Amino acid sequence: MDDALLDKLGILADSAKYDASCASSGAKRRTGGPDGLGSTTGAGICHAYTPDGRCVSLLKILLTNYCLFDCAYCINRRSSNVRRARFSVDEVVRLTLGFYKRNCIEGLFLSSGIVRSPDYTMEQLMLVARTLRRDHGFAGYIHLKTIPEASPWLIEQAGLWADRLSINLELASDRSLKEFAPEKDGGAIKAVMGQIGERILEAKEEKRRFSPAGQSTQMIVGADASTDLSVLETSDTLYRRYGLRRVYYSAFSPIPEASSALPAKPPPLQRENRLYQADWLLRYYGFTVEEIAAGGEGGMLDLGIDPKLAWALKNRGRFPVDVNSADREMLLRVPGLGARAVDKIVEARRHTTLRLEDVARLSSGLKRARAFLIAADHHPGGLTDRTDLRQRLVAPPKQLSLF
Amino acid sequence: MDLKDGADLDGFRRALRGLVAAGVEPDDVVWSGGAAPSLFGDAAPLPADAPPVPLPRPVGALIGTVVCHRDPERYALLHRLVRRVVRGERDILDHHADPLVHRLALLDKAVRRDLHKMHAFLRFHEVHDPDGAERYVAWFEPGHFIVEATAPFFVERFESLVWTILTPVGSLQWDRRSLTVGPAALRPEGLDRDDRFAEGWQRYYESTFNPARVNPTAMRAEMPRKYWANLPEAAAIPALIRSAPARVQAMIEAEAAAPRRRTPDRAVAAMARQEPASLAELNRIILAADPLVPGATKAVLGEGPEGAAIAIVGEQPGDQEDLEGRPFVGPAGQLLTRALEEAGIERGGAYLTNAVKHFKFAARGKRRLHQSPTAGEVKHYRWWLMKELGFVRPRLVVALGATAALALTGRSVSVLRERGPMRFCRTGSEGWDGFVTVHPSYLLRLPAGDGAEQACRDFVADLRQARGMVEGPG
């Protein structure tokens, strides 16, 4: 690796860091064999964590940060004065293999600014994946960011080589998209999601390989006026209509070379965190968007407490529930009990009647759960209905120092 | 019971068989690992070669991980677990709230976490052998006795590389064929000397950090300090954290950049320009693309004049078409040529193509057996077919067989029941006048006899009717 390549790596990793979708999970188990390189494990491995607390699982870079488009929230937009660089297909391949052999990464997450034309750009991305797989027997994880304006056949080709395809929706509403990303077309983005979703389903039925780890997207939170409710409604639609595997939420973060169309100050990172929690409730806990939103005010989630606790506090009539007899669906709604803890409870109570200390061994969130649970030796009594319950459950605010 | 140092699964298994056979209670056993002699003198003799103890699979798996733990009590706890299983609690592991099960689950979890961290945080360094061969070496300090347990992961992942993993509790060596488990090692000196990729990795690590989100607590929860010493990138952490507030402040204080050129003309024009402008350009794309069906060697393009009155769409190229690179040259193609002649259609004046551009086959010895494309595969190719017909602009499109009809209508069509004129739609309102009939290969497969001859006559009649639709009455 010469100095010029090192320099480009710095620029093109910096440009890619605002994309939150970097997980390597969800791929089928696969190995490269005696002549290939690498494997995917199914669970995904985070190889490092940066001081922002986020993991490094994949080599997340842009092919280039030159771009024809001018999306206000993006540091690489045409009108930005950021330093530009561009990798060749072979350079990305070399970097991926080099880092992979040193066990630094699980694979590659490749995105790109749009240069020359969307088709040209998409083809370059596809060629990187194809070269890795076909010429180097690379069995690690590959995630390609689809260029939504590219022609359908190129996206079909990319799906042959990638583990996951994604297209960033970026903004929850078509109106915001029009305002902040004038060249982007919300309809086109969803059309491609539909195309990819359909191909993934067909391939699964026909036992072919096409983006086997599914598709994902990202929405930026806090750059426009969208409420949490409208963000979650959009996610819910994406999960149901296009079978998306994940929606990532990325709190808008101040960028160098910011556009004057954007707020200068970032939204609280906590908002992103609450949206992820709400997303889990949506996918694994049987909550509807309306129920989640009802826990907050005016379409925004409560920043002080997690959305499940917020819902429970507003629906106290449904608590306390008996840990020894309640059905799984209701146990999942108890604040402090995660899905894994609930499964263990259901399994364990076939053998014994659970006391509070038993539950404590199965769940680390007992402090919050106490007020909502009945166990063999425990009844919360009036605790569930106390007006100061929220204060009792929320740790007293203390001055946090981030630095 | 004396066991080897570290994780002695075999020794534990042997001892356990003896203890269970002799009916020894867990409280009467003192387990000791390594060379240190047992404090309580010689153990009572146990039956040699006692029979295996049948255990439920989850219990066996739990033993496999827990013996790797550093806790000196691990063997005694496992013995107690096995005693209870032998006494009839076969599904004991479902009883998550049981104190013993819970304790063992914590040990199991700690070992699994350690395994995961070794998979994640081990870094190979390339070392240069005198002969220039590529070789990788890593140094790692695991929390428990897991080195051998990680071997399958690293062998599977780096099977084609030559590598060595050194740790204070054992080492592994892989030469692309076999694994050698070796003794404890000392930390090697100067591993990452001259490795530009190690330097590149640090640059990447620094660049991917977003100072506006600094959160060292979250980082340390997943990547505790004890691992930092052997992670080359961790050297950058203190400076990154220190400089973050100033970097963020600078970004917020910097005046918003005034947009420069904002007209989207160029981007919009680029999108419009990228569509292939001619049939030749489309064909170049098809030739350059990978097959979307398994088997094919090269794309077989359509053949015939642009502006042909009739376009004939078959299923996919066959063995001979694939070799020659031309559509309809095999047995079915020859039959089609004869039928077209009888129907009064000049083959050279029609446009002949296939719904799927590649030969899908399964190799059976030297033979390449034709395989029908699936509905999904037909859809993959549909974009190209639609564009192609868009350039040819035929007055009538003839679909030969069900696959062609599927490609042209987007639904499954029963050819024998629906043969005849049909409207073929593209997405949107555009479309073509169409005609559905059988594929000539269907005629080839019919057993010889009256039925077959009649079927051929029907096929010619269909083509004649199609010709009539193009030429109009008279």
UniProtKB/TrEMBL annotation, chain A:
The cofactors required by this protein are:
[4Fe-4S] cluster
Task: Classify the source by domain of life.
Answer: Bacteria
Q: Where is the signal peptide?
A: none
For this protein, what is any one GO molecular function term? metal ion binding
| Keyword match Iron | yes
| Keyword Manganese assigned | no
Kindly state which keywords UniProt assigns to this record, in alphabetical order: Iron, Iron-sulfur, Metal-binding, S-adenosyl-L-methionine
What range(s) does the Radical SAM core domain occupy?
51-288
The record, for NCBIfam families, names: rSAM_link_UDG
The molecule here is called Radical SAM protein
Organism of derivation = Azospirillum thiophilum
